[in-house]
Design goal:
Layout (H helix, E strand, L loop, with lengths): L1 H4 L5 E3 L5 E8 L9 H21 L6 H24 L1 E7 L8 H15 L2
Antiparallel strand pairs: 1-2, 2-3
Length: 119
């Protein structure tokens, strides 16, 4: 929706401390992490590692920790999907004092912090 209504770099105020900004995060066209197959394999390895940690019985055993970990993995999957589909990720939330980010970044950050705090 942001990409349809705002030109890249354009922003719209939402309140005194929040702006919706259309910022496109591009990735280098070369390098080992450019290949879609490598990206999918890397994401699958991270998801499998998290599943093994949960199944081992040592960490992330509480339902809240598992939900937080799921949020982090879902945010990572969302950014990966955008990167594979478009080659870019659209960042839209601008607080002014922090780099522009998207909702998937929020899910990753809060999910990781929540999962670690709830171990």
């Amino acid at each position: 929706m942001v990409a349809r209504h705002l030109v890249a770099g354009e922003s719209a105020p939402v309140g005194p401390w929040l702006r919706i900004r259309h910022r496109v995060t591009s990735f280098p066209s070369d390098g080992p992490l450019h290949s879609p197959a490598v990206l999918l394999l890397l994401w699958a390895a991270v998801a499998a590692g998290a599943a093994l940690l949960v199944r081992s019985g040592y960490v992330f055993q509480g339902p809240a920790a598992q939900i937080a970990l799921s949020a982090a993995l879902a945010g990572a999957a969302s950014n990966l999907f955008d990167r594979l589909r478009r080659g870019t990720v659209v960042d839209l939330l601008d607080l002014g004092w922090w780099p522009t980010f998207n909702l998937a970044d929020v899910a990753i950050t809060l999910g990781v912090v929540g999962a670690i705090c709830l171990i």
